[in-house]
Design goal:
heterodimer; A: 112 residues; mainly beta; 6-stranded mixed β-sheet; 5-stranded antiparallel β-sheet; 11 strands; 0% helix; 60% strand; B: 115 residues; 7-stranded mixed β-sheet; 4-stranded antiparallel β-sheet; globular
């Protein structure tokens, strides 16, 4: 079982809809990252969370440490939001190196 | 400057060629990473450099040879690759590598095709 699970794997929405992508993890973490990757492109860091909630424009990320769960919300979705959204956890490895454990990603398609 | 710059963006190489991928950041980050990403899969960690020293090698074949000449630059030297090595190679950097939850910055990647 992957230590970081994302759902759904694929999501199709109409422009303007509110979107939620979920991420759950099974071990302790130092931080959780939400990343965005457009087809064939590089990765952009959207948020890094260790507690609470962060907002940037139409994007909101929340994390519940007790429940080991995070969500990424997109309000008023737009076709340009179409991308793969990846949840990645910085696990409490106890060592001196930084390793991200990635979820499998959610492919979001927003239709006009 | 909050960018990680990777060159080249695309590379086609034969199985007998020697080539290098380059990654550069000027954010003062002291940890730099190489990831390999196959289509529709999450990135897989290959190497981590922390303070210019190799600290993680995820059992990567020796045909991939990383190098960190200084704190801003990370190279990946390629030799005698196989077609299955074709992938997107991503570089990333973080302020430090102590597992304390630091923001990761990724480059746009080099799309490598081995023919």
């Amino acid at each position: 079982k992957n230590e970081v699970e994302q759902s759904p794997q694929n999501l199709t929405a109409q422009e303007g809809e509110f979107i939620t992508i979920n991420c759950s993890y099974s071990v302790g973490i130092s931080a959780l990252h939400w990343l965005q990757q457009h087809p064939g492109g590089g990765i952009v860091s959207l948020f890094m969370l260790s507690s609470g909630k962060k907002k940037h424009g139409r994007l909101i990320a929340t994390i519940n440490i007790q429940e080991k769960h995070s969500s990424l919300h997109i309000t008023a979705s737009h076709p340009r939001d179409s991308a793969v959204y990846i949840c990645a956890a910085d696990l409490n490895s106890g060592g001196s190196n930084y390793k991200l454990t990635f979820g499998k990603g959610t492919l979001l398609t927003v239709n006009p | 400057d909050t960018e990680v710059t990777q060159t080249p963006k695309h590379l086609v190489m034969g199985m007998t060629n020697k080539k290098s991928l380059k990654c550069e950041q000027h954010m003062g980050h002291r940890a730099m990473y190489w990831y390999k990403q196959k289509a529709k899969k999450p990135p897989e960690l290959m190497f981590v450099y922390s303070y210019e020293k190799l600290s993680i090698n995820e059992s990567v074949p020796s045909r991939f040879s990383p190098e960190c000449p200084n704190s801003s630059l990370l190279n990946l030297h390629l030799h005698a690759l196989q077609p299955e090595d074709s992938a997107l190679y991503l570089c990333a950097s973080t302020k430090r590598g102590a597992g304390l939850g630091t923001e990761a910055f990724f480059g746009q990647g080099t799309r490598l095709t081995v023919v």
